[in-house]
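Subject: Methylmalonyl-CoA epimerase structure
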Amino acid sequence: MFTNLEHLGLAVHDLDAATDLYTKLLGQGPYKKEHVASEAVDTVFFQVGGSKIELLAGTSPESAITKFLEKKPEGIHHVAFEVADIRAEMTRLRQEGFTLLNEEPKRGADNKLVCFVHPKSAAGVLVELCQTISPTTHD
Ligand code: ZN
């Protein structure tokens, strides 16, 4: 089950400048800054009610964010939904004909297991599923 619009991921060139901008825009500072080595990104998170804004900057030429910004302007990179059971949703989406970008859930930022749905199978939007890792989740 999809339970929440968890966050919007925004691709930015300059993370510090974007953090300052969003601190002004939202009237509050971020609650977390995190480097995700597996994705070669630095991330900054802002809480906005029940949802979040995730700023993403690539830290290597191979980063998906760096490649995205070589082709497109800064802006919305992905839309993330919280799900109760990521493996169940991955199975369901495969049966519905969606193309998933990873075979298994992987460790994402902000203490989450994540999986991405290819934009070509989701009306041009890169969709992220995320499930909060509880202390009893072994992964
Ligand atoms: Zn995300």
